[in-house]
């Protein structure tokens, strides 16, 4: 048996119109979290970062 997907914000069953959310309110809550920086991609502080902010030339050889 397939269980219906749940809203990632409140856990209620998702509604097709607002999928993957249950309502426009939960969709707006999620959007606000993106805008305010609540969602971030983790990074390590010890990763080398070039001073010019661009990747090294050898890293771009695949493009």
What report would you give on this structure?
By secondary structure, this protein is mostly helical. It has a domain at 1-36: 2-Layer Sandwich (Erythroid Transcription Factor GATA-1, Chain A). Helix content is 19%, strand content 0%. It contains 1 helix and no strands. The chain starts with 23 loop residues before the first helix and ends in a 28-residue tail after the last helix. The relative contact order is 0.11. Zn(2+) binds at residues 7, 10, 22, 26.
Number of β-strand runs: 0
Run of helices and strands: H
Helix content: 10-25%
Q: Decide which structural class fits the backbone.
A: mainly alpha
Runs in which pLDDT lies below 50 for 5 or more consecutive residues are none
CATH topology of the domain at 1-36: the name is: Erythroid Transcription Factor GATA-1, Chain A
Largest sheet: none
CATH superfamily of the domain at 1-36: Erythroid Transcription Factor GATA-1, subunit A
Instruction: Report the mean per-residue pLDDT as an integer.
Output: 82
What is the 3D form? elongated
DSSP summary: helix tally = 1
The rounded Rg comes to 19 Å
Keywords: Metal-binding, Zinc
Family: Belongs to the DNA gyrase inhibitor YacG family.
GO molecular function: DNA topoisomerase type II (double strand cut, ATP-hydrolyzing) inhibitor activity; zinc ion binding
Binding site for Zn(2+): 7, 10, 22, 26
């Amino acid at each position: 048996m397939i269980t219906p997907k749940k809203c990632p914000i409140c856990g209620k069953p998702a509604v097709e119109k607002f999928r993957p959310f249950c309502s426009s309110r939960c969709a707006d809550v999620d959007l606000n979290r993106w805008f305010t920086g609540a969602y971030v991609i983790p990074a390590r502080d010890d990763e080398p970062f070039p001073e010019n902010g661009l990747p090294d030339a050898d890293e771009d050889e695949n493009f």
